[in-house]
Every structure is written in C-alpha cells, then in structure tokens.
Write a structure and sequence with these properties.
410 residues, alpha/beta, 9-stranded mixed β-sheet
C-alpha cells in the first residue's frame, strides 16, 4: 500500500485501536509502515542504515503458499500452463515453519499459486497465525466460498487484509480471463461478505480488491469501481496490476497501461472516494509510470516466499513467470527441512543480500519484474543456470535459464 494516502493509512490503523488489537498496532507502527508501506524508508533502513551498523535484520515478514491445487484456468496465470503436481502444505508443516520463525512474523501473506480453499486446513492456518497477533493478508477470488456459514467462518478467523482478485468488471471480461470462474457467484459472495460483516459487527477482515489488467479486462475497470462504490463499506484499497510477467504462453494477454489510462482510473477512484494503487507493468517495466528503481532499493527481500513444499524463494515477485522449475532449482533452502533463521544466515543467502545492496543482480533474482536489471551479466545468468540444473532434475536439459533476460543486458 505504498501509494495510498497517509490519512487513509491512519484510518486503517484506527480499526486496530477500536478493536483493541494492541499487538497488531505495535506490528503495524514499528514494522509494517516503515519497512513495507514506505518504499524509501524501507530501502534506506534495510539496505543502507542497518548494514552500516553491522545489523543484518532477520525478516519480519513472511509468505507461505497453502496449496498449488487449482481447478480454474486463468489465461494470465502460470498455473494454467505448468506441469507441477498439485500439493497442499500440511498444517503441521505450516506450524513448523511459522513457529520456527522464532519471534512470530509481524506480517504473514497466506496465498500462493493455487486456490487456498482446496487446502482443508486453510482457515485453521489463518486462525493459528492470527492467535499470535500476526497481521495476515490473503488473496482469494471468492468463487469457492460455499454459503453464509463459510463466509462467517472466514470472518471469524479475524484475519486482517483480504484482497479479492478480480479479472474483469463485467461477466464477459471476467469469465474470458478466469476460465471456469463465475462472475455472478463472486459478486454475490462479495456482497454477502459485506452484509455479514456488518451483521456480525466485525471490523476485520478489511476488504481490498486486486484488479488484474489483461487485454480483456483493461476496459471494464471503471465499471468495477462503480461496483466497489455500491458496496457502501470501508475498502482498504483497490490494487491495479498489469500482468507481472508477460511469459510466452500468456504474452498475448499482456497489455501496457499509459498515463492517460492511469489518470482516468485515478480520477474515477478519487471521485468515488476509493483509494487506489497502480502496480508495476511487465510491458512498460514500470511502477507508477516511473523508471524501474535500482536494485539496491529492493525491500521485497525482507518477505521470503515459501512454496507449499517448503522451498524458499526471495520474494513473491518471481512468481507468475511460468518458471516454476527454475524457482525450485534456485531455491535458497527448504523451510520444512531447515529452520528459516538458519537458511537466512547461510553463506549463500548473505551473498544474495550483499549483491542487492551493492546494486548487483544476484542469480536468484534474474527474473525480477520490479527493479532495474541493467547491471545483470551473462556470468550471472550462467551461474543461475548451473544452480538450477544442479538442484532440480527437471532443469537438466535446460540450455538457457532466462533467455529473455539476455536482451536486457547492455
């Protein structure tokens, strides 16, 4: 939420005050805001100030993937094209990773490349993490909630930020992107969620939306903003994201967004009183229509992403490139087999952070969609290639790990 106004951030935090969530207030004020909601502060503190003091801070934030099972075939999602067998993380393994963190994570993202509700322990995981005072953020498409009782159960987990993924503002645009999805069901569940929250007198989860920009959904976003306004409820933000990676199988669905488009969306949102964030674009290599920031500004390194099998990747930005085998091959360790703290302070993980702080692209980050890759070298690509081949049998026949990255080398 770096782009939303300070006044709105304060309003969101006030919900914690009214709800008496004092552990979360501490986590929000002293960790989330300076190290996540403010990119400049985070980059300065994590990559300049603390290293100069000899402090290599253990990450306060974490993401864990509940499942890689999914029954839909979204045209923009890597899951529709890969061959990886579906896997649910067991609750015992989730708890092992979470508890092995040491002091509880200040923030937990519990979403991955799959439909979370296909893991029967999903709500159990949410409730367990919430019982520790951790701030929880999830993403869901709201197609799999069965009835009002299921919605009440979700609300009663007490989780904090719920993003509902939206694939178009009309039935036609939505279902052309989310193949197998049901626009009417999703909109019905959203309205029932809002009504039940009011009925139950609950402030949480705070509702947000994630609107995915593709060639089919691009033109219906203003209609969706009208829908959000019609809900007559507090909305934390609408996050607008063009496809993060325009990978080969889905490149025909990726589109650029220009300044005029962004201005029209912002103007509409402002008129309706909706806070909005425009995320980076794979086609334009931008965030908020600015040049990619340098690698040493990376803040995502303090939120490792844990796959459902336990493999540790630097962050979630590397997902959705349809490069899952490479991600497994370049994983920094496995959080089920080895405590994350031990992996974090391993030689290799330290070398990765050192490279980032020196404005170099480490081999684990050659697909980064968020930061400037102009310092990447052919040697780094080959190192990444060798790493992936050595650690993942599926990569043995790979000739080049990231051929598209070669084009970015100056």
């Amino acid at each position: 939420m770096p782009q939303i106004s300070l006044s709105h951030k304060i309003k969101l935090v006030s919900n914690y005050v009214y709800d008496g969530r004092f552990r979360e207030i501490y986590n929000m004020i002293f960790w989330v805001y300076p190290l996540w909601w403010n990119r400049k502060w985070s980059a300065f503190i994590m990559n300049k100030f603390l290293p100069k003091l000899g402090i290599d801070l253990f990450p306060p934030f974490l993401e864990i993937e509940p499942t890689t099972a999914c029954q839909y075939a979204c045209v923009c999602c890597e899951h529709s094209y890969w061959k990886e067998p579906p896997k649910n993380i067991r609750f015992d393994d989730f708890k092992k990773i979470f508890d092995g963190f040491g002091k509880n994570p200040k923030w937990l993202g519990l979403t991955g490349i799959g439909t979370s509700y296909l893991n029967k322990d999903y709500h159990k995981m949410l409730s367990y993490a919430k019982s520790k005072g951790t701030i929880i953020e999830t993403f869901d498409h709201f197609n799999d909630l069965e009835d009002d009782n299921h919605l009440r159960e979700l609300i009663n987990t007490g989780m904090d930020f719920l993003f509902i993924s939206i694939y178009g503002g009309t039935k036609e645009s939505y279902e052309s992107v989310m193949r197998g999805g049901n626009f009417d069901k999703a909109m019905h569940n959203i309205r029932r969620f809002v009504a039940l929250k009011k009925q139950m007198n609950k402030r949480f989860p705070l509702l947000s939306f994630h609107y995915i920009i593709t060639k089919d959904s691009k033109d219906s976003i203003l209609q969706f903003l009208d829908f959000v306004h019609s809900l007559d409820t507090e909305v934390a933000e609408v996050l607008v994201t063009p496809m993060t990676h325009a990978f080969k199988e889905a490149e025909d669905f990726a589109v650029s967004i220009d300044e005029e488009y962004v201005e029209n969306v912002r103007k509409k949102a402002k008129k309706l009183g909706i806070e909005i964030t425009i995320n980076f674009s794979a086609k334009k290599d931008t965030e908020d229509l600015q040049k990619r920031p340098p690698m040493h500004n990376c803040k995502e390194l303090i939120m490792p992403f844990i796959f459902s099998n336990g493999d540790i990747t630097p962050c979630c930005s590397l997902n959705e490139a349809n490069n899952r085998d490479w991600q497994h091959g370049t994983a920094l360790g496995n959080a089920i087999q080895t405590p994350l703290r031990e992996v974090w302070y391993s030689k290799r993980y330290k070398e990765m952070r050192k490279a980032i702080r020196e404005d170099q692209v480490p081999p684990e980050c050659i697909y980064c969609p968020a930061y400037d890759l102009s310092t990447i070298t052919k040697e780094t690509i080959e190192q990444s290639n060798q790493m992936a081949r050595a650690n993942n049998p599926k990569m043995q026949q790979a000739k080049v790990v990231a051929p598209i990255v070669v084009e970015r080398i100056k």
